[in-house]
């Protein structure tokens, strides 16, 4: 059984114009998130990502469909029953949402007081979490005395306070610089591996998904247009919108416009060799080309690694006798896919 299941979920809002058609924010979305997943939900601004998060933690009701958390249908339940559901769902935000008038210790303690934990247990839990996020020495500091990365670590500690099984991270690194982003992502990985917390990462940044997620759903116009293992979606995206996202961090096969530039700048026959999860060894491919008496130049592309699995596309300009080039392409094509573009 999935920890989080969405079944044909739709969310609409009234039109700002009197008598206008309702605005569809989420359109017939079905999704399953298994316990232990780090599940990325990615899309451009306005795709419906943040609305989907608010449906998962019942901050907003669905217009149609079902949201099931740990086997329990939460759609349509009264607010008094949803409070206990939300205790099992932590959330971290883009702008941290800390209480500026409370110090770090009391920010982390706040949800525990709301939940009615005894003082002794609150103290032990807060100290444990501040140790976990590396901020024990900042316990008496206030948010305006912290860096952005430190604020987000406080946000993580606070989100974990009530021992949730699910953590929702809504654009949690968008306000951070690249180095701090990697520190926060490393912390989220620890949350997942050491505490066993299932994490749903909402982002528009493909490199965040590449760094941390095990599965991904791509959203566009309120719909999930592609989903699956991150490696599969990244290495072989099936939807045009997915391909646009992937291209922001991974150079694939050159577009027609890019090919025109390559053809102007480089002499020779241009081919793209595709590598996927060990289907061919790069060194062996290059050696095959050299042994055929063909010179080559790497002109586009790269190889990427997602959790130990490699894939990518290398575009080469081959120079030499046409017969030798043809023979080399045939031999290389026996172990990997070769596309000749000129």
From TrEMBL:
This protein's GO CC annotations: plasma membrane
SUPFAM superfamilies xrefs: ACT-like, P-loop containing nucleoside triphosphate hydrolases
Subunit structure: Homodimer. Forms a membrane-associated complex with FtsX.
Gene3D superfamilies in UniProt: 3.30.70.260, P-loop containing nucleotide triphosphate hydrolases
UniProt keyword annotations, A-Z: Amino-acid transport, ATP-binding, Cell membrane, Membrane, Nucleotide-binding, Translocase, Transport
Organism of origin: Orlajensenia leifsoniae
Domain ABC transporter, first and last residues per copy: 4-246
Protein name (database record): Methionine ABC transporter ATP-binding protein
Gene Ontology BP terms: amino acid transport
Similarity comment: family membership: Belongs to the ABC transporter superfamily.
Function per UniProt: Part of the ABC transporter FtsEX involved in cellular division. Has ATPase activity.
GO molecular function annotation: ATP binding; ATP hydrolysis activity
């Amino acid at each position: 059984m999935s920890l989080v299941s969405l079944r044909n979920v739709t969310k609409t809002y009234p039109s700002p114009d009197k008598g206008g058609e309702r605005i569809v924010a989420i359109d017939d979305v079905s999704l399953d998130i298994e316990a232990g997943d780090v599940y990325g939900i990615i899309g451009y601004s306005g795709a419906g990502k943040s609305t989907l998060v608010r449906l998962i933690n019942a901050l907003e009701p669905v217009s149609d469909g079902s949201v099931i958390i740990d086997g329990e249908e939460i759609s349509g339940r009264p607010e008094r029953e949803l409070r206990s559901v939300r205790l099992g769902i932590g959330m971290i935000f883009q702008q941290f949402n800390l209480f500026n008038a409370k110090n770090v210790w009391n920010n982390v303690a706040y949800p525990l007081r709301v939940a009615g934990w005894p003082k002794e247990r609150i103290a032990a839990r807060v100290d444990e979490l501040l140790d976990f996020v590396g901020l024990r020495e900042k316990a008496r500091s206030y948010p305006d005395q912290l860096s952005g990365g430190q604020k987000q670590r406080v946000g993580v500690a606070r989100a974990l306070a009530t021992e949730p099984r699910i953590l929702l991270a809504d654009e949690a690194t968008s306000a951070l610089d690249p180095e701090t982003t990697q520190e926060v992502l490393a912390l989220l990985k620890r949350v997942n591996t050491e505490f066993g917390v299932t994490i749903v990462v909402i982002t528009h940044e493909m490199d965040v998904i590449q760094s941390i997620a095990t599965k991904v759903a791509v959203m566009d116009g309120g719909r999930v247009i592609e989903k699956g293992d991150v490696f599969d979606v990244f290495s072989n995206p099936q939807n045009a919108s997915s391909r646009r996202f992937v291209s922001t961090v991974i150079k694939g096969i050159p577009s027609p416009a890019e090919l025109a530039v390559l053809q102007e700048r480089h002499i020779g026959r241009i081919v793209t060799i595709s590598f996927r999860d060990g289907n061919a060894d790069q060194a062996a491919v290059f050696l095959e080309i050299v042994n055929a008496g063909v010179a080559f130049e790497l002109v586009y592309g790269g190889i990427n690694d997602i959790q130990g699995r490699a894939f990518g596309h290398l575009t080469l300009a081959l120079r030499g006798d046409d017969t030798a080039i043809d023979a080399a392409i045939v031999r290389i094509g026996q172990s990997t896919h070769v596309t000749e573009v000129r």
